[in-house]
Amino acid sequence: QVQLVESGGGLVQAGGSLRLSCAASGSIVRRNAMGWYRQAPGRQRELVAAITSGGNTNYADFVKGRFTISRDNAKNTVYLQMNSLKPEDTAVYYCNAAPRAFGSWGQGTQVTVSS
């Protein structure tokens, strides 16, 4: 069974930075394109950034230039460096395969950006 454990969220002021980590079971990260998703209260979950097994990256327009996704296949870990955070980035952040996610999700990590 797929296990995904997100961490690194917290409360930060607008303009600040956070680095999220996602530890995955087995060789999920090495074998799959991975992504970071987020879900704000009352909104649908959306894909924020994705990285292929070859290291190519793709970003949603609303985070381009501010967020950077990376992966460490040896550690089965995916990262999301978030800079210049805005209040509208407030959400629970999840990692999963991308663009088609696995059926199971981790608990996510809460990111709260104060104005």
What report would you give on this structure?
There is one protein chain. This protein has 115 residues and is mainly β. The protein contains one helix and ten strands, in the order βββαβββββββ. The strands form two sheets. The protein has a six-stranded mixed beta sheet with strand order 2-10-9-4-5-6, with no helix packed on it. The longest helix is centred in the N-terminal third of the chain and has 4 residues, at 28-31. The radius of gyration is 13 Å and the shape is globular.
Rounded mean pLDDT is 95
How far apart are the first and last residues' alpha carbons, in Å? 39 Å
Shape: globular
Low-confidence stretches: none
By secondary-structure content and strand pairing, the structural class works out as: mainly beta
Strand order of the largest sheet: 2-10-9-4-5-6
Q: Specify the biggest β-sheet.
A: 6 strands, mixed
Question: What key phrases describe this protein's structure?
Answer:
globular; 6-stranded mixed β-sheet; 115 residues; 3% helix; 1 helix; 4-stranded antiparallel β-sheet; mainly beta
Question: In terms of topology, how is this protein built?
Answer:
Elements: E1 4-7, E2 10-13, E3 18-24, H1 28-31, E4 34-39, E5 46-51, E6 57-59, E7 67-72, E8 77-82, E9 91-97, E10 109-114
Parallel strand pairs: 2-10
Antiparallel strand pairs: 1-3, 3-8, 4-5, 4-9, 5-6, 7-8, 9-10
Précis, in short:
It is built from 1 helix and 10 strands. It has 115 residues and is mainly beta.
